[in-house]
Automatic annotation (TrEMBL):
Biased composition (Low complexity): 194-211
GO cellular component: cytoplasm
Keyword presence, Signal: no
Pfam families noted in UniProt: Arc1p_N_like, tRNA_bind
Name of the protein described by the UniProt record: tRNA-binding domain-containing protein
Protein localization: Cytoplasm
GO MF terms, alphabetically ordered: tRNA binding
Domain of life per record: Eukaryota
Region (Disordered) location: 149-243
Keyword line: Cytoplasm, Protein biosynthesis, RNA-binding, tRNA-binding
Organism: Zizania palustris (Northern wild rice)
């Protein structure tokens, strides 16, 4: 590819950098964008920058200028991203470096076939994240990232006794008839014994002369019936208990954060105004201040539980719970990302769990405490409940944090 193919990259860089720095994109003239190379354009907008950022700006400049070396540069970028989600730092907040590199790399990546794209899995993961959290305006064409295909495990209903195999019924009924015939033979035998001459030395009533074997069978049969009643009731109680605690009782929906601000009396908390569509807007308090600024969250799509009991957190009312993925030491926390095209307010579904959500969860039952241990992201970052994906009409929800807890 020639440098001319990257003409739109500079416009995307200028627009996204201005948005990132809260500047007016119109303040950068189209003439200065056209006449500047990437390094000088960056320096014109970002007045001062760190050496680490400039290293990536020069990478972008090389990517545009060195025709024929794109694959080698992509290999290096793929390796660098293998252990992190963004180019600088250990978190998820994009920097100016991510903006510049993405705007140049995406042009080349959009010209690759599916086979070649799969050579750069970490670059693809990074690009999918950046293009969904950074505003590049209308000059950038989003890259289509092939999502993993999921075949959720089926959950067949347990067969009732009436639905059992007919052949097994025949075996059981045949066994019963044999038992009956044995019983009748035994009773006849017992009757015959009562007609035998009475032992005068040790007179015993005929009804007490029942053989010990028959008595043992009778006792076993009675015990079997008793145990059968216990085993029948146990699974029923377990099933009822499980149905109260599975994910179907949660109302998990797709939302869009319209506003966000710092909690007035808690440094670790942020307050968000989340749009659920159809005029349904609710206020939610989240412990995300350590990981995101309010501006980072505005216009971000999220996944939240909307049937938790509303209550005050440090005197501010909260009516929802934004679900986030976090690593083991909680140094990285990120709200789950719904797929592009998911509708505001639509309920997240889980294959095999089709129950109706409760109107409001009962805190005394500690239902969330029983369900959240089964919420995790898999090795691909897909959000799951017991291995079953969080599914919307547009696909599965995900995170940049693989093998993470979700709370």
């Amino acid at each position: 590819m020639a440098a001319a193919d990257f003409a739109g990259s500079k416009q995307a860089i200028a627009y996204a950098l201005c948005k990132h720095l809260r500047l007016d994109p119109d303040a950068v003239s189209s003439t200065s964008i056209e006449e500047s190379d990437i390094v000088s354009l960056f320096s014109h907008i970002v007045k001062s920058s760190e050496d680490e950022i400039m290293k990536w700006v020069e990478f972008s400049s090389s990517f545009v200028g060195k025709d024929g070396e794109h694959h080698l540069l992509l290999d290096n970028l793929n390796q660098d991203l293998s252990q992190k989600s963004v180019l600088l730092g250990n978190g998820f907040k994009p920097s100016a470096a991510d903006i510049v590199v993405f705007a140049t790399v995406q042009v080349f990546m959009n010209h690759l076939g599916e086979y070649e794209l799969q050579k750069y899995p970490h670059v693809l993961r990074w690009m999918d994240y950046i293009q969904n959290v950074v505003d590049f305006g209308t000059t950038v064409r989003k890259i289509n990232v092939a999502k993993s295909v999921f075949n959720p495990p089926s959950h067949p209903k347990k067969a009732n006794k009436e639905d059992a195999d007919p052949s097994s019924k025949k075996v059981v009924s045949g066994q019963k008839s044999v038992d009956k015939s044995d019983a009748s033979v035994g009773s006849k035998k017992a009757a015959g014994e009562t007609n035998a001459p009475e032992n005068k030395a040790n007179p015993t009533p005929a009804k007490n002369n029942k053989p010990s074997g028959d008595k043992k069978k009778s006792q076993e049969k009675s015990a079997g019936k008793a145990n059968e009643g216990v085993t029948d009731k146990a699974p029923q109680k377990t099933a009822e208990k499980d149905s109260e605690c599975n994910v179907s009782i949660l109302n998990i929906q797709v939302g869009l954060i319209r506003k966000a601000w710092k909690h007035p009396s808690a440094d670790s908390l942020l307050v968000e105004e989340i749009d659920l569509g159809d005029g349904n807007v609710r206020q939610v308090v989240s412990g995300l201040a350590k990981y995101f600024s309010p501006d980072d969250l505005v216009n971000r799509h999220v996944v939240l539980i909307t049937n938790v009991k509303p209550g005050k957190l440090r005197d501010i009312m909260s009516a929802g719970l934004v679900l986030c993925a976090s690593n083991k030491d909680h140094s990285i926390v990120e709200p789950l990302i719904p797929p592009e095209g998911a509708k505001l307010g639509e309920r997240i579904s889980f294959a095999g769990f089709d129950g109706k959500p409760e109107d409001v969860l009962n805190p005394k039952k500690k239902q969330l405490d029983k369900i959240t241990p089964d919420l995790r992201t898999d090795e691909n970052g897909i959000a799951t409940y017991r291995g079953i994906p969080f599914t919307t009409s547009a696909g599965a929800c995900r995170s940049s944090v693989p093998n993470a807890d979700i709370k």
